[in-house]
C-alpha cells in the first residue's frame, strides 16, 4: 500500500485590540520570526479548542473564537533541512480576554502588540506571507460563522493512546 499524502492541519488566531494585533516573536529553523499565535491541531480537540489553546500557550491571553476568517493552504520547504510540508491552516478572529501570568510555549520569545504599519515594516521577518494575508482578510471583514465547522462527537471519544498506536 502506498503512503497517502496528508497536509499538516494548523490553526491561527488574528487577535486585535484597539487597532493593534497580537503577534508572537518565535525561534524557527529559519531564524527569529513573527507570526500570529498558531499551531497544530491536537488529537481529541475541535478546531475552536485548538486555536484557544494555542493562543493561551503562545501569548498567555485568553482567546474565544467568534468567526473563521479563512482557510489557507501553503507549502513550505525548509532552506536548512529541505523538508517539504503543506499546511492547511484555519484562521480565526475572536475576543481577546485576560492575560495570565504563565510561561510562554517553548520557542516563543515574546508576545507583542503591533499596529498594521509596524507589521508591514517587518514583513521580511514574518514566518510566512500568510501573516499579512490573514490580517488583510480580517480588516476586509471576511468572516464565516463558526456553525460552518462541525466536529463530530467521535473526535472526543477516541482515547489519546489509541491515536498513537
TrEMBL record:
Enzyme class: hydrolase
UniProt entry tagged with the keyword Phosphoprotein: no
Signal peptide: none
Lineage top rank: taxon: Bacteria
Pfam families assigned to the protein according to its UniProt record, in alphabetical order: NUDIX
Keywords of the record: Hydrolase, Magnesium
GO molecular function annotation: nucleoside diphosphate phosphatase activity; ribonucleoside triphosphate phosphatase activity; thiamine diphosphate phosphatase activity
Domain Nudix hydrolase as annotated: residue spans: 4-137
Cofactor(s) for this UniProt protein: Mg(2+)
EC number(s) per entry: 3.6.1.-
Subunit description: Monomer.
Family from the record: Belongs to the Nudix hydrolase family. NudJ subfamily.
Protein name: Phosphatase NudJ
Organism: Oxalicibacterium faecigallinarum
Amino acid at each position: 500500500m502506498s503512503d497517502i499524502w496528508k497536509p499538516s492541519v494548523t490553526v491561527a488566531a488574528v487577535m486585535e485590540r484597539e487597532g493593534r494585533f497580537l503577534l508572537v516573536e518565535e525561534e524557527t529553523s529559519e531564524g527569529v520570526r513573527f507570526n500570529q499565535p498558531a499551531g497544530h491541531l491536537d488529537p481529541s480537540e475541535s478546531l475552536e479548542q485548538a486555536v484557544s489553546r494555542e493562543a493561551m500557550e503562545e501569548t498567555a491571553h485568553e482567546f474565544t473564537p467568534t468567526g473563521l476568517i479563512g482557510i489557507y493552504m501553503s507549502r513550505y520547504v525548509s532552506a536548512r533541512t529541505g523538508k517539504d510540508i503543506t499546511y492547511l491552516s484555519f484562521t480565526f478572529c475572536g475576543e481577546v480576554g485576560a492575560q495570565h501570568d504563565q510561561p510562554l510555549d517553548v520557542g516563543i520569545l515574546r508576545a507583542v502588540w503591533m499596529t498594521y504599519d509596524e507589521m508591514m515594516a517587518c514583513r521580511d521577518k514574518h514566518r510566512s506571507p500568510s501573516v499579512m494575508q490573514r490580517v488583510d482578510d480580517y480588516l476586509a471583514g471576511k468572516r464565516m460563522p463558526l456553525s460552518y465547522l462541525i466536529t463530530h462527537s467521535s473526535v472526543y471519544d477516541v482515547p489519546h493512546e489509541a491515536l498513537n498506536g
